[in-house]
Amino acid sequence: MADHLDLRTVGDLLHHYPRRYAERGELTALADLPLDEHVTVVAQVADARVLTFNKGGRGKGQRLEVTITDGSGRMQLVFFGRAVFFHQKELLPGRRGMFAGKVGVFNRKLQLSHPEYKLLDADSSDETVKAFASELLPIYPACKQLESWTIEQSVSIVLDSMAATGWAGLADPLPPALREGRGLAALPEALQKVHRPHTKADIEDARQRLKWDEAFVLQVALARRRFADTQLPAVARRPVPDGLLDTFDAKLPFTLTDGQQKVSKEIFDDLATEHPMHRLLQGEVGSGKTMVALRAMLAVVDAGGQAAMLAPTEVLAQQHHRSITEMMGELAEGGLLGGSEHATKVVLLTGSMGAAARRQALLDLVTGEAGIVIGTHALIEDKVRLHDLGLVVVDEQHRFGVEQRDALRGKGHSQGEKRTPHLLVMTATPIPRTVAMTVFGDLETSVLDQLPAGRSPIASHVVPAADKPHFLTRAWDRVREEVENGHQAYVVCPRIGDGEDDPKAKKKSTPEDEAEKRPPLAVLDVTEKLRAGPLAGLRVEVLHGRMHPDDKDDVMRRFAAGEVDVLVATTVIEVGVNVPNATAMVIMDADRFGVSQLHQLRGRVGRGSAPGLCLLVTEMPEASPARQRLGAVASTLDGFELSRIDLEQRREGDVLGQAQSGVRSSLRMLTVIDDEDVITAAREEATAVVLADPELTAHPELRTALDALLDKEREEFLEKG
C-alpha cells in the first residue's frame, strides 16, 4: 500500500475515501469505459466458453472467454493458462460480480484480460437479497497491485478494531462548539458512514463533516500565519508630500483607473503599519499591475527605504527594468546630470551581467544610492547586501521556490536591526476566490479587474489544421496582412527543437497526445518552414530559453523597436513582454498548453490601440476534450472564468502548482472549486479560534491534527509563503 497508493498509516487508510459507490441492484454502465485505464465494473455473466488455440509451434493452448453485461453494454473477459477451468466453474451465466482490470480492445470489442474479480452472490431469502441489492459498495481509488476490494477489507478491519477500543487515539480537530453549532457528525460516525454507508444520506453527512475537517485545519494553519505576521516588526513606510511619488504622479500622461487607485490605497494603508504587508495583487494581463507596484516602490523610496523586484527570468527582469526606467524618466537618474532633485537610481541585477556592472550595482545597493533594484534569483545571493530593504515585490510568484522568496525577505534591516520587509506578490494568472483563500490564505488579496483605457479587444479563433488545412493557410495570410499594415506578430511553439529532448515533450500528458504520437512542434523547425514558405521575405527571428541572455535581450530589443516582423518563440514570452505594436499571435499545437497559459500568452497582443488577433492552431478532432478547451479560451477574455474551467478540467494540484503540492495532498474530500461555502465559513471560524487562542492551548486535538497535516516541509512553505 505504501509504495503504490502512499498509504502508510492507519490514519492514511481511514482517510482513503471511496471515489464512488456502486449498488448491487444497479449495474454500472459499460458503454463509456475509458481505454487503457484500470477500472472496476459491476456486471452479470452472460456467457462463458473455453476455446482452443494454436500457440505458434508450441502446441495448443486454451483460453476462457466470458461475456459480461449490464444491460447498456457488453464486455469480454479473457483468461489464459491452467486456471481457465477454475474460472469457468466460478463464472457461470447469471452470476454477478465486481471485475477489475485494464480496459483494452480485441477484435473491436472492449476487453479485460485476466481481471481480478469478486462474485456477489446473495443468500436465497428475500430479506437477504433485498439488503444485498440495496447495499452501497464502496469503490476505492485503486491500482493494479491493490484492488478496490482488498482496500475495502483492510478498512473494515481497521474500523472494527477502532470501534472496539472506543476510537482511542482518534483526534477530532473540530472544537465541540463549532461541530455542534454547524450540525456536523462526530468524526467516528463520519468515518463509519463514508466507508460503510447504509443510505446516500449517510454519504452526504460524512462528506460534509470530512470536508469541514480539511478546510478548517488548513484555514487554522493560514490564520496562525496571518496572526504571526501581525506580531513581526516592520518599518512603517509613508510617502512624503511633494516627494518622488507625487512628482511621478504629476508627470503621468494618463489617469490611473479606479481599480488602480483603489488597490494603491490598500497597499499604501498596509505600508503605513508597523507590521509587514503580506498582499497578493492579481490582475488580468495588461491591467496595470506594474504601475501599481512601481508606485508602491516609489512610496517606500520616499520614506527612506529601498524596494526590490524579483522576476523569474532575465528577459522579464530586463523588460521590467527598461519599462520602469522609461516610465520614471529623469526620476530614475539619481546622481546623474539632468536627474531630478527627487530622483533615485534604478539598478538591474542578473546572473549574466559583466563583472564591472555587477560591482557597481552591488555598491549602489549597499550604500543606498539605488532606491530600486530589479533582478532575477541573482538578488538572493549571499554577497548581495541592501542598505534598508523596505519592500519586496515578487512577480509571477508561482515560478519561485519558497526558499528564494524567503532569502530575499531575509535581507531586510533598518538602523542595524533586522526588520521584515513588506511583501507584494503579483500574478497575472487569475485565481478563483476559493483557490486564493486555500493556497494564498495568509495573504490579503487585491484584484485589478479593469483594463486601462486604450487597450484593444482581442479576437480569438480555433484553427483546425488537420480538418481544414486552408484555415492554416489563411492564418499565415492574416499574419502577412498585419505586417503589411505596419504591425508585428508572435508565433508560439511548445518546444525548442535544438536536438536536446524537452522533458515535457517526452511526457505524454493526455490520451490525445498518446494517440497522436507526433512530437510537439518546435521553434527552430517552424521558423525554417515559415522563412522558406508562407512568411518568406518577412523579418522572422527566434527567441527561446536556451539562448545566451545577451542574444535574448538583443532579439527582444529589436522586436520592441520594430526591426523584427515576426517573433517565433517558446513560452519565454508568456509574462511581462510588452510590445504594443504586436497585434497577432499564432499558437502552434495550442492543445499542448493549459487554459491559463493560453490566456497569458494571448495577453501579449492587443496592448496598443490596434485590435489584437489570437489564432489557436490544433490538429485535434472536433469532439476531443482538447478542442473543447480551446473553444472555451476562444469564447471569452474573462481570465477568472477560464481559471474556473481550468480548475474543473484538471487535478487541483496541477493548477495550484508544485509549491502547493503539500496542500493538495491534504485535500481528499474538499474540492476548492465547488466548496466555496465551506471554505469561507471555515476561514471565519479559524480566524476566530486563532485570535482567541493563538497557541491553541485549549484545543490539543486540533493541534495534533495540525501537526499531522503540516509536516515540516509544508509548515515551512506556509511560514515563508
Explain the overall architecture.
Helices cover 41% and strands 19% of the residues. The longest helix has 32 residues, at 200-231. The strands form 5 sheets. Strands 11-12-10-13-16-9-17 form a 7-stranded parallel β-sheet, sandwiched between helices. A 6-stranded parallel β-sheet has the order 18-23-22-19-21-20, sandwiched between helices. Strands 2-3-4-6-5 form a 5-stranded mixed beta barrel. The protein is built from 28 helices and 23 strands. With 721 residues, it is of the alpha/beta class. Helix 21 links the parallel strand 22 (582-587) and strand 23 (612-618).
Can you give me a brief rundown of this structure?
This protein has 721 residues and is α/β, with parallel strands linked by helices.
